[in-house]
Amino acid sequence: MLKILVIEDENLLSDLLKKFLTRDGHQVLIANDGVEGIKSYYQFRPDLIITDIIMPEKDGIEVIVEVLKDNPELPIIAISGGRRAVTANFNLDSAEMLGVKGILQKPFTHEQLQELIESVLVV
């Protein structure tokens, strides 16, 4: 069982991710924006973070930089997409350059998420 922190400002998606990941046997904590996500990271000390890129308050890029500064080995999966496919690709590429272990463009399937989680945890 992994402790997974999901940082996502879209309630529908965060609820769906929590349902999927809990069903897969993981302990899941949801944060609704980057500020809450950073606080939750320090309190929860997750094994994996899944973060959206475009969020209010503090975006996913800022979260990634701060978390990896504290723990460079922590696996992070960045997600972005929707209507802004060009912007999403740019943001995901930026996240990858910063050191996230995996990226997913929305929309994605439960199976794609499972496969990516497995791949980022293999060292």
Describe the structure in brief.
With 123 residues, this protein is an alpha/beta fold. The protein has 5 helices and 5 strands; from the N terminus they run βαβαβαβαβα.
Explain what the structure shows.
The chain is α/β, with parallel strands linked by helices and 123 residues long. The protein has one domain: Rossmann fold. 50% of the residues lie in helices and 21% in strands. Strands 2-1-3-4-5 form a 5-stranded parallel β-sheet, sandwiched between helices. The longest helix is centred in the C-terminal third of the chain and has 14 residues, at 85-98. The chain starts with a strand and ends with a helix.
Can you identify the CATH superfamily?
Response regulator
CATH top level assignment:
Alpha Beta
Element-by-element helix/strand order: EHEHEHEHEH
CATH fold name: Rossmann fold
Amount of helix:
40-55%
Distance between the termini: 17 Å
Class per helix and strand makeup: alpha/beta
Gyration radius (Cα, Å) is: 13 Å
Q: Which geometry do the CA atoms define?
A: globular
Q: Which stretches of 5+ consecutive residues score pLDDT under 50?
A: none
* Average predicted confidence as pLDDT: 91
Counted up, domains total 1
Number of strands: 5
Main sheet characteristics: 5 strands, parallel
Tally of helical runs: 5
Trace the largest sheet across and list its strands: 2-1-3-4-5
- What is the CATH architecture term? 3-Layer(aba) Sandwich
Beta strand %: 15-25%
